[in-house]
Design goal:
GO molecular function (chains A, B): 2-phosphosulfolactate phosphatase activity; magnesium ion binding; sulfopyruvate decarboxylase activity
Oligomer: homodimer
CATH class of chain A: Alpha Beta
Keywords (chains A, B): Hydrolase, Magnesium
Enzyme class (chains A, B): hydrolase
Catalytic activity (chains A, B): (2R)-O-phospho-3-sulfolactate + H2O = (2R)-3-sulfolactate + phosphate
EC number (chains A, B): 3.1.3.71
Largest interface: A-B, 28 and 28 residues
Shape of chain A: globular
C-alpha cells in the first residue's frame, strides 16, 4: 500500500491514478459539506462543474447548491456551508453541487479505481477505509485556483499520520505533509483559521464554517463516487 | 518585504515575478555547484538549457559542465558535483552548465527584477542579501521533473526561518515551508539524504555530494544573474 500526496490540481498529471483510490480533499468547504451532508441523511450528492449543469439538475428535482468565489450562486437553494447540508430540509434529498475547486478535483480523478471524499469531519473513517482496502492511495488536495493551500495539505498529512505504520511513504510530498501535520496538530484549528482561504472566507462572515470544518471525526461516513453521484 | 514560496516550475506561472528578487533553488545539485564554484574562484558560470548550447560555448573557451538524469554528459569536461567546481582547474575560468531542473528554473525566472541562486552552502549569505535589499521575494524550488521535492522546499523553509522577523508571510506555501524546516532542522542532513532525489543520486555512488550539499554556510557568496551569466 503506497501513499502519495498531490498538492494541487495543476500537478495531478504527474500521478498515475489507475488502480488507485483517490481521496479528494477540499476542507474549506466542499468536501466538508459532502461529509456533513451524507453523514446527516442526504440521499446523494452530485458534484458538477458548471452553474448550468447544476441548474439543469435543479429542474429534475435536485436541490441546487454551490458557490463561486466563496458566495452562494444567486438562484440556488443553498450555498456551500456545512450547516446548510445538515438541515432537515435536505434529509433524504438529492443535492447537485458546484464549487470552485472541489468539483474540479473530482473530475480530474476520473482515471482512479475509486474516488472518495475526505475532510477532518470524517478523518478516522477515511483512514480506516483506506487501511481495510489496502490499495495504493493518492491524496488529492483541491487547493485554491490551482495553488497550494494549507488546510488541504494538513488533512493529507493527517491521513498520512493515520497510515504511517501501514503505508509506504516513498515520495517527498508525502513525507512533507506528514511532518507539516505533526508540527501543527496540537493547534490545528488555529492554523486552519490562519490559512489564506480562511482569511478570504472570513471576509464573508463565515467564521463558524471554518471552525466547524476543523473539527475531527464528527461523522463516520466515507462518501464514494458511483456513476457521478456520491453514495455511502 | 513579502516572501512567497513556489514549490515546482509547474506552478511558477501563478506568481507575478515583476519587481521581485527570485532565489532559484536546486540543492541537489545545480545551485550547490554554482555556489561552490563561485565561492572557489570560478570567474563566471553560464547556465544554458541544452547540451548543444553548452557545446557551442565549449568551442568559445568555456569549460563544459552538466548532467542529464544525474550523470555527466559524455563529451563534457565535468559533471554536476560541487567538488568538481572547487578544483584548481576551474579557478579563474568560465563555466557553461546545463542541468535537468536548475537551468530550467533560472530561465522561467526571466521576469524577475533580480535572480540569485541559493543553497544550504550559502544560506546565511542569501538571508542577509535579501534582508538588505528589502524587496519582495519568490523562493523558487526547481523540484525534480516538475514535482515537489524535499531538499529544495527545506531550503526555502530555511530562508523563511532566517527572515521570519523581517518578512511578511502571507501565503500558505510559505508558512508550510517554514514549519517543515523547523520540524526537520535538527537533523537536516538525515532528511535530505532520505529525499527521493538523494535516493536516485545514491544509485550513482555520489553520497559524498549529498552530504556536502547539506552543509550550511560553507561560502558567503551570493551568485547573481547578469546578462545570462552568474557573477558576484
Amino acid at each position: 500500500m503506497k501513499i502519495e500526496v498531490c498538492y494541487t490540481p495543476e500537478l495531478i498529471k504527474q500521478f498515475d491514478l489507475k488502480g488507485k483510490i483517490v481521496v479528494v480533499i477540499d476542507v474549506l468547504r466542499a468536501t466538508s459539506c459532502m461529509v456533513a451532508g451524507m453523514g446527516s441523511g442526504v440521499e446523494t450528492i452530485r458534484p458538477v462543474s458548471s452553474i448550468e449543469a447544476c441548474t439543469e439538475l435543479g429542474a429534475k428535482g435536485y436541490i441546487m447548491a454551490g458557490e463561486r468565489g466563496g458566495k452562494k450562486v444567486e438562484h440556488f437553494n443553498m450555498g456551500n456551508s456545512p450547516f446548510e447540508y445538515m438541515e432537515d430540509a435536505v434529509r433524504g434529498k438529492k443535492v447537485a453541487t458546484t464549487t470552485t475547486n472541489g468539483t474540479k478535483a473530482i473530475e480530474l480523478s476520473a482515471d482512479a479505481d475509486e474516488i472518495i471524499v475526505g475532510a477532518f469531519l470524517n478523518l478516522s473513517a477515511v483512514v480506516n477505509y483506506l487501511e481495510n482496502k489496502g490499495k495504493d492511495i493518492v491524496l488529492f488536495c483541491a487547493g485554491w485556483k490551482g495553488r497550494y493551500n494549507l488546510e488541504d495539505s494538513l488533512f493529507a498529512g493527517a491521513v498520512c499520520n493515520g497510515l504511517r505504520n501501514t503505508a509506504a511513504f516513498e515520495d517527498d510530498a508525502t513525507l512533507s505533509a506528514l511532518f507539516l501535520y505533526q508540527s501543527m496538530k496540537d493547534d490545528l484549528s488555529y492554523y486552519i483559521s490562519r490559512s489564506n482561504h480562511a482569511a478570504r472566507l472570513s471576509s464573508f462572515g463565515i467564521l463558524r464554517d471554518i471552525e466547524y470544518c476543523a473539527k475531527i471525526d464528527e461523522f463516520s461516513v466515507v462518501p464514494k463516487l458511483l456513476d457521478d453521484h456520491l453514495v455511502l
